Automatic annotation (TrEMBL):
<dbReference type="InterPro" id="IPR007446">
    <property type="entry name" value="PilP"/>
</dbReference>
<protein>
    <submittedName>
        <fullName>Pilus assembly protein PilP</fullName>
    </submittedName>
</protein>
<dbReference type="Pfam" id="PF04351">
    <property type="entry name" value="PilP"/>
</dbReference>
Amino acid sequence: MKRFATCLILLITGATLLGCGRQVEQELDDWMRRASRDLRGRVEPLADIHTEQPYRYRPDGLLSPFDPQKLLLAQRQANAPDFRRPREPLEHYELDKLQMVGGIRRSNEAYGLVRTPDGSVYRVQLGSYVGANFGRVQRIREDGIELIETVEDLNGDWVQRLATLRLDGPQEQKPQ
């Protein structure tokens, strides 16, 4: 008897679910028809197709990117001084015409005092340019000012050398 009751319950439940499933499916189909009745698809027009003009590479007279001469040229330009930079007043004199006459220390910053041939005295600090050979102040000591000059050698390469402007004495230059 229990088996019969269980089978009967399962049969009734299955029929109910089957009937509900058909009704839900019918309602869904009706809703889809109503919702899509007023829809009209719009497709945006495609953008104009732009055709590239072919470029013809003509290597006549150009350096190959694999040529060692190109690397040498790039190295020369990398070491060259900046010619577009405005020159500072002490760059108008040769280094041997300038003379260090003293130094000042203010707020833990050192300054050097440099006299020009006409008797004017200028104050320099780290990074200042001094002399005609693009000399840049690297260090200021009590007895001298150390500079790194950028000069062109016999091969046309720009090289740097160390120069020192001594206090009341001649300066020395050493290749670097």
